[in-house]
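This is your field. Pick holes in the following sequence-structure pair:
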Amino acid sequence: MFRRLLIPLLLVLILGTAPASAATTNWGAPGPYATAVEIGAVNTLYYPRDIAGSDRRHPVIVWGNGTGGAPLVYRDLLLQWASHGFIVSAANTPMSNLGISMRAGIDALAQRDADPSSVFHRKVDLTRIGASGHSQGGAAAIVVGADSRVDTILPIQPGPLADIDDVHGPAFLMAGQRDSIVWPALVKAFYNAADHIPAIYGEVRGADHFTVVGDPGPFAAPTTAWWRFQLMDDLQARALFYGPNCGICVDSVTWSDVRRNARVPR
């Protein structure tokens, strides 16, 4: 009798204390940080509001807009990342392909991190930097990925004017199944060329070229998880991308096509 009671009790204890899996974590939900926005001449910053009192340094994401776009167009997505503890430096330029303003954003944050009068003083983690962007800005993220300071890239529906051969860190390349401006085949071409780095191709089911604009919808969760994994070493987020049964690999509701190259740990 005792043994029959003990086994269910142990199962309850084990299951009750097991960590949540990446598949059940709502990465699209806002993070624990209230956010703030600072509009500058070259870049707009999205960051944790109380960063001056933070007890840690915060990783950086540099962002490039699509052609003719501005950071305001992607405000919801950038604030989502900031709410998870990232400092997002978004280039104000509508022509971001060369990545000049994105690199300038890194330089500016390095200066402010060193400035005792800045709220960012000793709060910027310049050893953890990612690059992202949409359309032309996605191509810019690939261009900036060649910078030795950039650890990982996340191009969203990237335009063609970039060379991924120069990127040195892991890449998560996102396409839209119904994108008629940047066809999925163009994003797959970048993925196929990225055989020298860990690279993942994710095609969002039903997404067109402008699904990420405004409310980022299905782009919010996987992008947040990628940054949490790559720039914060979040193991739950890692399981969404790496391992034998990765979260995006088995999620046919969100994804119409997922590919991982041989350099991605299985």
